């Protein structure tokens, strides 16, 4: 039984080998999701409520879902917190150089 | 006056400096548009009807518009043909390494 009534289903995480480039590009093509990924590229694990984005919780949940299903992030529970982790190693293995190039492009005024 | 009644407005091309990363990622996050960009990455100028994509002409026009407005391609008229060109130099100047990394990722089974 889920610990929170807000979660309707177990999160789906693609295996590293199944990460799809078009899904990754779609996930990154949004300012809120890009901000989440940028933030994680500096600090690879953060509590979910601490990202510098200004959106409603339900909207943030949607963005996390898109990032999770594209293979960009994982969540894990620790004590009372839900932590978000960037799947940097999986992405680097699947698409060498991609995440770093995109993150640098956005940081340089994308 | 436009030479073809099908064109309702002059195409809009962003200046190289105004190319937006999220627009580029959105434009690339589609199999038809990615195929067009992949094809142009091998052969930088092609006639519009010669891309290896299987979509209706109106759908193809839409995809060209998205690519054009994101700054990925230009069109030019030559004799009776409309040619499509990849803006590889502009993209490289704006986001070094991005296009090459994405194209390589897709070619390697994205």
Automatic annotation (TrEMBL), chains A, B:
Stretch forming the signal peptide: none
Annotated PROSITE patterns: HTH_ARSR_2
**SMART domains given in the database record:** HTH_ARSR
Question: By its UniProt entry, which InterPro entries does this protein fall under?
Answer: ArsR-like_HTH (IPR011991), HTH_ArsR_DNA-bd_dom (IPR001845), HTH_MetalResp_TranReg (IPR051081), WH-like_DNA-bd_sf (IPR036388), WH_DNA-bd_sf (IPR036390)
**Entry keyword set:** DNA-binding, Transcription, Transcription regulation
Q: Where is the HTH arsR-type domain?
A: 13-106
Q: Which Pfam families match?
A: HTH_20
Q: What is this protein called?
A: ArsR/SmtB family transcription factor
The organism of origin for this protein: Kitasatospora phosalacinea
């Amino acid at each position: 039984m889920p610990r929170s009534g807000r979660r309707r289903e177990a999160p789906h995480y693609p295996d590293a080998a199944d990460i799809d480039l078009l899904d990754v590009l779609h996930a990154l093509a949004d300012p809120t999701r890009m901000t989440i990924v940028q933030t994680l590229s500096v600090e690879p694990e953060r509590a979910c409520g601490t990202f510098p984005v200004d959106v409603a919780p339900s909207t943030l949940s949607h963005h996390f879902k898109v990032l999770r299903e594209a293979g960009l992030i994982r969540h894990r529970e620790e004590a009372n917190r839900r932590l978000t982790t960037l799947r940097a190693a999986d992405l680097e293995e699947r698409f060498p150089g991609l995440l770093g190039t995109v993150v640098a492009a956005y940081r340089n005024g994308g």
